[in-house]
């Protein structure tokens, strides 16, 4: 198996240490690739290349519309190669091929969106209070950007970083999760084919504790954009203080899904199922915390349990499969620990809570769709992100009560309200401390709308015009049109 390499300063290279890592298919634990394993010194080299490229200014000074054309070309190539990219993503993550194909379409949309946005901001003239002067506010690229992405949506999360950073004229060092690097390697090949000056795009491979730590610490980096878990976020935040680099964080969630008694029952049940079990619950915005109005609670839970028991687990490449495995043995153990915690806390396990018995799934990291009822607000399984196929259900009696409960975690990423009363929906949506609120739906996200979290779910926004602004500095340029001495100092 050919060892896959890193891309630094326009060249594909092995790591300095010569170490390598096996990449595993979570469906059957087959080794699907071998990649070079970088460490601090490789990250250092990549940052140096990005710094030089930024300071030389070839990309930064490329007219914005031309930067946009390049990104349109990237989008075209992603579409042309989407089947191969989707195949790689499913092999690497275990997610269904249908899901990966949808991801590739989303990623194409992200590149197209930021390609189109690249030349839309020509700065803004502001009213100067000083006579005979003009004031202009312009946005400029931040500089060298470290970009660290997670394993659950490897290329999608990377695209949310790469596209706006390049559109704004920055240089980048990207590090995918060490366990799912394959599509990020592939897109780097695409970026190379489209052609960016050496050092503008750099890819480093390796562990977070070595490569990622250097990307967060290094003083030549101006911004670190990170998507991942909250504890990693804290470490990166601390590491970034050395030179006060800017940080943009997309972290975890414990996302409330609120169902009022007047909701369309079938729709709410179906959406609740999709909210929590899509991609085996390994979604930052998974609706893993269901709050159901008391009068329909029992009926709702019965309907959910019936459908959860029918979810077809399997190989992501099998058309019948509705959900794949969890990403790794370690991650499944974490989910299993949470299920034990839930039982100890007194929640009632009504379905799942174990691995499937089907021998065909025995080599994969599978876990059955699980539901806990009789959950209380202060339980750990209600407050903490499990990131697996585990749903907690709580009852509520009033609008005020449910808003208070929904807002009671340290997270604030996303959530939903299901009701046929549009005024109630609006009132609740306005009171939820979340970066995204869906009304009568769950999960939609697209390039045009900002994505990010309140509270400890994140800092800053990706996507939308705010996603481009993250990668810019704001400069005020003031010009005096009648310069003359001010004579403040008389001597
Ligand atoms: N808010 C969002 O949009 C969003 C999207 C996807 C995933 N997530 C979150 O990501 C988490 C799951 O992803 P994960 O398990 O890959 O997260 P993780 O925090 O373990 O790893 C994410 C990335 O950080 C790197 N990393 C680890 N330690 C590091 C360190 N000390 N310094 C620098 N980098 C380091 C990893 O190598 C990886 O590339 C969940 O909490 C999920 O909610 C959030
Ligand atoms: C942001 N999103 C929903 C694509 C993936 C979260 O894990």
TrEMBL record:
The keyword Ligase is annotated on this UniProt entry: no
Pathway, per record: Amine and polyamine biosynthesis; betaine biosynthesis via choline pathway; betaine from betaine aldehyde: step 1/1
Name of one Pfam family that matches: Aldedh
GO MF terms held by the record: betaine-aldehyde dehydrogenase (NAD+) activity
Domain Aldehyde dehydrogenase: 12-477
Enzyme Commission code(s) on record: 1.2.1.8
PROSITE patterns the record matches: ALDEHYDE_DEHYDR_CYS, ALDEHYDE_DEHYDR_GLU
InterPro entries: Ald_DH/histidinol_DH (IPR016161), Ald_DH_C (IPR016163), Ald_DH_CS_CYS (IPR016160), Ald_DH_CS_GLU (IPR029510), Ald_DH_N (IPR016162), Aldehyde_DH_dom (IPR015590), BADH (IPR011264)
Keyword NAD: yes
Keywords from the UniProt entry: NAD, Oxidoreductase
Superkingdom to which the source organism belongs: Bacteria
Catalytic site positions: 250
Family: Belongs to the aldehyde dehydrogenase family.
Protein's name according to its UniProt entry: Betaine-aldehyde dehydrogenase
Protein source organism: Pseudalkalibacillus berkeleyi
Gene: betB
């Amino acid at each position: 198996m050919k060892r896959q390499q890193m891309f630094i300063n326009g060249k594909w290279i092995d790591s300095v240490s010569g170490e390598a890592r096996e990449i595993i298919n979570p469906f059957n634990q087959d080794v699907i690739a071998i990649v070079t394993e970088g460490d601090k010194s490789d990250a250092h080299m990549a940052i140096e290349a990005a710094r030089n490229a930024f300071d030389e200014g070839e990309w930064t000074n490329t007219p914005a519309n031309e930067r946009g054309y390049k990104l349109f070309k990237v989008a075209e190539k992603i579409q042309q190669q989407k089947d191969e990219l989707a195949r790689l993503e499913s092999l690497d993550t275990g997610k269904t091929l249908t899901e990966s194909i949808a991801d590739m379409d989303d990623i194409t949309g992200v590149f197209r969106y930021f390609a189109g946005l690249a030349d839309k901001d020509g700065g803004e003239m502001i009213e100067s209070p000083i006579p005979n002067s003009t004031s202009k506010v312009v946005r400029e690229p931040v500089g060298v950007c470290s970009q660290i992405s997670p394993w659950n949506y490897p290329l999608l999360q990377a695209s949310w970083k790469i596209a706006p950073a390049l559109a704004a004229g920055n240089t980048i060092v990207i590090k995918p999760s060490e366990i799912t690097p394959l599509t990020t390697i592939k897109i780097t090949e695409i970026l190379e084919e489209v052609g960016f000056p050496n050092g503008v795009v750099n890819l480093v491979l390796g562990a977070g504790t070595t490569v990622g730590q250097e990307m967060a610490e290094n003083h030549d980096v101006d911004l670190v954009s990170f998507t991942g878990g909250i504890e990693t976020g804290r470490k990166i935040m601390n590491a970034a203080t050395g030179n006060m680099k800017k940080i943009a964080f997309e972290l975890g969630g414990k996302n409330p899904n609120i169902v009022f008694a007047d909701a369309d029952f079938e729709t709410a049940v179906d959406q609740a199922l999709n909210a929590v079990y899509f991609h085996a619950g390994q979604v930052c915005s998974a609706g893993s915390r269901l709050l159901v109005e008391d009068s329909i609670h029992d009926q709702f839970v019965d309907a959910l349990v019936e459908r959860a028991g029918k979810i077809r687990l399997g190989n992501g490449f099998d058309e019948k499969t509705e959900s794949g495995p969890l990403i790794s043995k370690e991650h499944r153990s974490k989910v299993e620990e949470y299920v034990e915690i839930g039982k100890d806390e007194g929640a009632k396990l009504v379905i799942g809570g174990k691995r499937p018995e089907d021998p065909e799934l025995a080599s994969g990291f599978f876990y059955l769709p699980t539901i806990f009822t009789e959950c209380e607000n202060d339980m750990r399984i209600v407050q903490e992100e499990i990131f697996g196929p585990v749903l907690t259900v709580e009852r509520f009696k009033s609008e005020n009560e449910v808003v208070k409960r929904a807002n009671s975690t340290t997270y604030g990423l996303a959530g939903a309200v299901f009701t046929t009363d549009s005024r109630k929906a609006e009132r609740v949506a306005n009171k939820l401390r979340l970066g995204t609120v869906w009304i009568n739906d769950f999960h939609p996200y697209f390039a045009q709308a900002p994505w990010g979290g309140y509270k400890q779910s994140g800092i800053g926004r990706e996507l939308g015009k705010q996603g481009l602004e993250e990668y810019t500095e704001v400069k005020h340029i003031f010009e005096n049109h009648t310069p003359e001495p001010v004579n403040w100092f008389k001597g």
